[in-house]
Design goal:
Structural class: mainly alpha
Bound molecules: zinc ion
Radius of gyration: 32 Å
Number of strands: 0
Helix content: over 70%
Length: 111
């Protein structure tokens, strides 16, 4: 029995995780032997899965730590942005205040 590519695509995950039945395994293997497209798909899926498993094997704490670090980094960047925006706003306000003040002083001929 020759499986079409989209069926093999659906089966690749259970085939990789050794959850497929004997007949399915045989049919997928037969297809992978002949079909380069599906073989590449299977290889890239295996690689992605291995990376994920490595991350899990490093320990969920390590995985979570990296995730938290990423979120913290993003929040820090946002905080710097708001702090910068606030600084610009304050400097402009002071500049405008000083300008208006000098203008009034000139009008009243204090300067
Ligand atoms: Zn195929």
């Amino acid at each position: 029995m020759k499986l079409p590519c989209d069926v093999v695509t659906d089966l690749i995950t259970i085939y990789h995780d050794r959850m497929a039945g004997e007949e399915t395994i045989k049919a997928v293997e037969e297809h992978l032997e002949d079909c380069e497209v599906c073989r590449e798909l299977y290889e890239s899926y295996s690689m992605a899965e291995d990376e994920f498993e490595d991350a899990i094997l490093e320990g969920p704490e390590e995985y979570m730590r990296q995730e938290f670090e990423q979120v913290a980094r993003r929040q820090r960047r946002r905080r710097y942005f708001y702090a910068g925006a606030a600084a610009v706003y304050i400097i402009f306000s002071i500049a405008i205040y000083v300008y208006v003040l000098l203008d009034q002083l000139k009008e009243r001929k204090y300067i």
